[in-house]
Amino acid sequence: MVKYEAVIAGVADEPLRDGKVVIPGSPLQVQARCAKRALAEAELTLKDVDGLFTAGMWGIPGVGQLSTVTLSEYLNIRPVVHDGTNIGGSAFVSHVAHAAHAIEEGLCEVALVTYGSTQRSEMSRNLAGRPANLTMQFETPWGLPTPVGGYALAAQRHMYEHGTMREQLAEIAVSARGWASLNPAATRRDKLTIEDVLKAPQISSPLGLLDCCLVTDGGGAIVLTRRQQASGGRKPVFIRGHGEAATHWTVAAMPDLARLTAAEMSSKRAFEIASVKHDDIDVVEVYDSFTITTLMTLEAIGFAERGRGGEFVSNGRIAPGGAFPLNTNGGGLSYAHPGMYGIFLLIEAVRQLRGEVEPERQVKNAKIALVHGTGGTLSSGSTCILSVG
Amino acid sequence: MVKPLPVIDPGTAPYWQALAECRLILKSCRDCGQPHFYPREACPSCYSDNLEWKEAKGEAQVYSFTICHRPAGPAFADDVPYVVAIVQLDEGPRMMTRIDDDVRAVKIGCRVKVKFHDAGDGVVLPYFNLVSE
User: What residue segments make up the domains of chain B, in order of their start?
Assistant: First the structure.
């Protein structure tokens, strides 16, 4: 029996315009702003925080290497639980689960999870890859554009094994844009067709420009606390189950390029712990770094049959009005993608469960949400099942 | 711009040294018999550390590939479009490589053979070429 019940009591994200933070700021400033707003939702303040969970790409090499240490210094807080787990963009899904455990065990009372990036404003994004040392001495010298090339290799293999078509991948981008068009906070809201996606410049075949996520700034924060302490008028959100796994980072070491093993492992465990079935899930938010990511994730989690993800997403099924509401903020493909996206999956799921989003994209009677983050190059998976009540 | 070369370490030096002599070698487990790539300190199949280097034939099959239209940084800009592939060696392990052929001719399942490519600074990279059937 756990000592306390942990809940998500506050979330916040940073307003963007054209993919850039509306108010210019460093990644530390952006995180401080989001932290203050998420804490305010929970009727808490920075001085209440005793657990800090973050991962990022800021300040590396340099102060970002000790991300929780630098961030706690900047915020002038003294957390007694530090978690800088970095398994890629999925890390924040793990942070929320780890924070819930820490609260349940009485190790901390108020946990703050943050992310911040100003990569778009700084024009610091590049495809040039990672230093060719250690395991990457067998990948970087080949000139695979990262991370898109690894996802392209997986997409090519998936097409070969299962007959998946580019049109089906394109439908994922079109559906995401459909949701984004209903979300005033989304970066890309103009109409998109399957033909647009197919005609877009090829980046790394079979993936074209519009199969790829956006490159934006972004920031987010999530506050967890004991259920008894969660005040305010908002519905507390519970963490019902979690799983995490990783299989590789160099793409050639991926066990099966047509199969997302990490997501299979993490979601299986999350479902077991939560004691829920696929049919019980009302809202699904999965990492869509690329169209193929969404497709392989839906298969790995078991929403779609293995190899049939292309059919699953077809005919508007995951678009607004479809039978399977997915990535209801527009996702990394059309809402925002600031290098690491996982925290935004959680923020959107919490808002859906609270019933707080615009009516046009609110999933009716949303009680249970599944959030799945993917990190690296289809490397890591982290799944959380969340609920209200 | 200069392309990134491998930062060779003690665990990988024999592999790169063999390539410099136009030989492709794999680490192989004396206990379970499985070869693996890239070279590790413990067998990824059975976790034994009773390993040895063995010569590979240098013949493989394309497992997956991508035609890179956007280079991985300016050092690769002159190569566009180029094929990066994962090939499955006849010995079993998979490795990443470049296939230096007509990009339109590369398909999954194609047979390929190693082509030792002088990358400068004493480094030889194991490119692969299509084998005409």
Answer: 13-130
